[in-house]
Amino acid sequence: MNAILTRLLKPTHLEYVVIDQDFLIKEVTEGASKFADGEGQIQGGMDVRDYFPELFGLEDILTDILEGVQPNFDLKDIGRFHDSAQPLYFDLYIFNGNEERMNGRGNFLVIACEDATQRTILAQKLGQVANEYALLLSQLNSNKNYLKKLLTL
Question: Do 45 and 25 touch, CB atoms closer than 8 A?
Answer without folding.
Answer: yes
